[in-house]
Amino acid sequence: MKSNLTLIGMPGAGKSTVGIILAKNLAMGFIDTDVLIQINRQKTLQQILDESGHLALRAIEEEEILKLNIDNHIIATGGSAVYSPKAMAHLKSISNVIFLEVNFDVLEKRIHNFKTRGIAKAEGQTFEALFQERQRLYKQYADFTIDCNILDQEMLAAGIAVSIRRQSEIS
Q1: What is the helix (H) or strand (E) element at residue 13, kind and residue range?
Q2: What is the DSSP letter of 81?
Q3: Measured between alpha carbons, how far is residue 16 from residues 53, 165, 170 in Å?
Q4: Is the Cβ–Cβ distance between 8 and 138 less than 8 Å?
Q5: By 3-state DSSP, what share of the chain in percent is helix, strand and coil, each rounded to 5?
Q6: For a surface tag, which of 38, 40, 114, 158 has the fewest beta carbons within 10 Å of its beta carbon?
Q7: What integer is the mean pLDDT of 106-133?
Q8: Does residue 115 carry a pLDDT above 80?
Q9: Does this model's pTM top 0.90?
Q10: pLDDT of 36-50, one tens digit each?
Q11: E-only strand ranges, the chain
Q12: 3-class secondary-structure state, position 41
């Protein structure tokens, strides 16, 4: 069993919230790669997008992920981390990757600031088109997929923690 867990999924899937709860439940550290980007660049994700575009944000995200050299952490990635085969290979080498899968209609209810949230998408791309484009990538890289449509974030984190504890007992 790898010592880290990485959470991937769409914006609004709950990666950061579930990640914080999970880190607390498992006595692990927590890293949000979006926050790392903002700290290291001294800009919000939206400012980076406005100034340099979505491809620049994706390149910065890849760079930050490739610098991760940690143990015993929950890693919440930005939703676009899956566009980088290098970043995902690195994450898979240091962690088990969990896809927090949420239906589009649920995400649409959760995301009210699509245009200003700092989401790396092509100009004019709709949230639904982005959702469709990313689903295959999330499934491709996931070691585990968790249906996040019904359970609240506390219950999700508790369920993941139980699964991880069982897995480590078996290993």
Answers
A1: none
A2: G
A3: 23, 21, 28
A4: yes
A5: 55, 15, 30
A6: 40
A7: 84
A8: no
A9: yes
A10: 999 999 999 999 999
A11: 4-8, 29-32, 73-76, 95-101, 144-147
A12: helix
